[in-house]
């Protein structure tokens, strides 16, 4: 392998292998066997795990209350582009040793921002060329790319929703370049994450105009994708309450409404993050079901939050029950297509060793793999699904089917109730029974 990738950045760690549930090796998979074949596909193909570049290789252990605690050996040097290449060598070594087939990035994660847009673009071109070599050498692919339209102070009032057209134009130019980079690296998706697309107060905000500007921005992106022949899926990542009081991409439901209002629904699906779902007051499964119901489930940002904290903690998710319910919903929807499970999760502030990076991803990958297998078992057994089908069976024929097919009316139904049906009989939802049944699969 070319460059500094020839020398290992993780000399003490070998490629993580599957050793099974009985293994006591903390650097081995217990449930994720990448080559295990299920339903004619390997587990690696089913789960399509991706590593988030920003957390794993740009995260420094900082939080809202203090600076970073993590210092990596590959960050040494004075030339930002050389450091970025060395960092990327370390990243691809990690991707390979953790056996993740994909990675994802923001433009400013992989390449340093310059003093001008032109310099930033040149930096990105150099790193994209380096990434292309590493992808070819390792077989690692790009799940998705995106542009960081929230960190630089120019975006303090948003990007596409900024009240200054100059900032809008700058953001458009940055996304144009990020889309080109994503296409050049064979990215299968492109994500729009509105980090600051919202407002702090209505006293200085024209909400209607800002939403129209955001829609115009997304239409321009659709047009440019056609112009350059980018075939990847566009994804919206809902995000509530952080950092603005109200964000226009609050949750999946509001995202669907926005896309349909502005004629964008055919071009976008959703990249759903667990922690964002809970911050919006929803469960992870709820957001998946809402997107799947309208055929707009695209990809997953795999993490979790701390239910006792009100901010985006981006922890690795090892809650097998929560993940199993999510996997049931995903399987029912037919899977994620070109999407995958991207570990948008970061190490805890006190987890400062490189081994912690491996422990965290091993735990996450094992939890998702176990949840996937349990969800397959639940689906194959069919008891939960049959219960739901039976609960709605009155809509499968006669007047119930007429309701769903829109072939009846208030008058027709009134006559039916008065002359034949009378008072409805109560039917139990058996929630406690179903919760007990679920636990039989988990234990």
Beta fraction of the residues?
5-15%
Number of strands: 14
Helix-and-strand structural type? alpha/beta
Query: What's the overall average pLDDT, rounded?
Result: 96
| Helix run count | 16
Order of neighbouring strands in the sheet with most strands: 5-6-7-8-10-12-13-14
Can you characterise this structure?
Strand 3 (37-38) and strand 4 form a beta hairpin. This protein has helices spanning 43-47, 53-58, 80-97, 107-110, 117-138, 165-184, 207-228, 252-261, 274-279, 284-293, 320-332, 354-381, 383-391, 398-404, 410-421, 431-442, and strands spanning 17-18, 28-29, 37-38, 41-42, 49-52, 102-106, 141-146, 189-192, 198-199, 233-236, 246-247, 268-273, 297-301, 341-343. The protein contains 16 helices and 14 strands. The two termini are 45 Å apart.
Blueprint of the fold:
Layout: E1 17-18, E2 28-29, E3 37-38, E4 41-42, H1 43-47, E5 49-52, H2 53-58, H3 80-97, E6 102-106, H4 107-110, H5 117-138, E7 141-146, H6 165-184, E8 189-192, E9 198-199, H7 207-228, E10 233-236, E11 246-247, H8 252-261, E12 268-273, H9 274-279, H10 284-293, E13 297-301, H11 320-332, E14 341-343, H12 354-381, H13 383-391, H14 398-404, H15 410-421, H16 431-442
Parallel strand pairs: 1-2, 5-6, 5-14, 6-7, 7-8, 8-10, 10-12, 12-13, 13-14
Antiparallel strand pairs: 3-4, 9-11
In short:
It is built from 16 helices and 14 strands. The protein is of the alpha/beta class and 443 residues long.
């Amino acid at each position: 392998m070319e460059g500094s990738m020839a020398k290992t950045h993780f000399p003490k760690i070998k490629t993580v292998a599957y050793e099974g549930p009985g293994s006591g090796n903390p650097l081995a998979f217990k449930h994720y066997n990448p080559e295990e074949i299920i339903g004619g596909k390997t587990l690696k193909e089913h789960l399509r795990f991706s590593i988030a570049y920003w957390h794993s290789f740009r995260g420094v252990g900082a939080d809202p209350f203090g600076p970073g605690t993590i210092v990596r050996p590959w960050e040494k040097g004075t030339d930002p582009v050389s450091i970025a290449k060395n960092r990327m060598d370390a990243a691809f070594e990690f991707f390979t040793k953790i056996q993740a087939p994909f990675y994802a990035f923001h433009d400013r994660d992989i390449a340093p921002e310059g003093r001008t847009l032109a310099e930033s673009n040149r930096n990105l071109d150099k790193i994209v060329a380096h990434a292309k070599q590493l992808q070819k050498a390792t077989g690692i692919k790009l799940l998705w790319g995106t542009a960081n339209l929230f960190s630089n102070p120019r975006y303090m009032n948003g990007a596409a929703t900024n009240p200054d057209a100059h900032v809008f134009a700058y953001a458009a130019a940055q996304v144009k370049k990020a889309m080109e980079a994503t296409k050049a690296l064979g990215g299968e998706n492109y994500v729009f994450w509105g980090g600051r697309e919202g407002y702090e107060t209505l006293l200085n905000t024209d909400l209607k105009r800002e939403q129209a500007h955001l829609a115009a921005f997304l239409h321009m992106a659709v047009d440019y994708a056609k112009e350059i022949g980018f075939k990847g899926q566009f994804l919206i990542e809902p995000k509530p309450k952080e950092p603005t009081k109200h964000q226009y991409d609050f949750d999946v439901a509001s995202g669907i409404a926005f896309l349909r209002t502005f004629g964008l629904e055919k071009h976008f699906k959703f990249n759903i993050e667990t922690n964002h779902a809970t911050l919006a007051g929803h469960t992870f499964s709820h957001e998946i079901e809402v997107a799947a119901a309208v055929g707009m489930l695209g990809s997953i940002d795999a993490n979790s939050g701390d239910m006792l904290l009100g901010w985006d903690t981006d922890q690795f998710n090892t809650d097998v029950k929560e993940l199993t319910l999510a996997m049931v919903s995903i399987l029912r929807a037919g899977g994620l297509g070109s999407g995958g499970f991207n570990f948008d999760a970061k190490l805890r502030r006190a987890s400062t060793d490189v081994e912690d990076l491996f422990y965290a991803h091993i735990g996450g990958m094992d939890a998702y793999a176990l949840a996937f297998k349990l969800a397959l078992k639940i689906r194959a057994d069919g008891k939960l699904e049959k219960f739901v089908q039976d609960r709605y069976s009155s809509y499968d024929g006669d007047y119930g089917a007429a309701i769903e097919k829109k072939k009846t009316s208030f008058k027709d139904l009134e006559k039916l109730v008065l002359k034949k049906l009378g008072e409805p009989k109560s039917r139990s939802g058996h929630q406690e029974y179903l919760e007990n049944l679920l636990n039989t699969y988990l234990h």
